[in-house]
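Need tokens for this chain, all 206 residues.
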Amino acid sequence: MTANTEHETRERIVGAAMQLFWEKGYNATSVADILKSAGINSGSLYHFFPGKQDVLLAVLTALHDNIWQWLLTPAWEGIPDPVERIFKLLDRYRASLIETGFTYGCPIGSLALELHEPDPPVREKLAQNFDNWVAAVEGCLDEARKRFPPRTNRHEVALFVLTTMEGGVMLARTEHSIEPFDACVDQLRNYLNLLMKSAKQTKSRK
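Here are the structure tokens for all 206 residues:
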């Protein structure tokens, strides 16, 4: 097996597993499912991964490393306003919910909910993915920091955005309706607007 072939085979395994974990969940996906979807034999999989958890770790690494390429850059293309980029990102999740008939879920959030007591390496990878997402949103808030009160904790606001998205997705999937997601996002926008209004009023009094 050449280096290029090895790379392609490994990527095929990770891609197949990522799709299956999203569609079926981690626990419901067997190694046989991954082999069938990737079109490989067991020897090829075990050449790269000692077990299914090692495949999961590779999936979580790929999601972490490709967040800009797969999620943020496409969502933010042509959106110069940093605050609106946050809502454009949330709108991408909204569109995915509708397009998939409310079967779509944030892959990291879905895995975190499913794996109640993940082993430390898995828990660490899940946390890194959440941290990566929060850091991207916090970067938007940092760009717009002059529009918010000086004491605004932008990291905590970014965490609030994450929990709004995850909670909205979970409720929309449960109710098979986009209304809960929209309600969550509307309240988030109201909150950010209140912060920005407060900052403007403070500046006008000086």
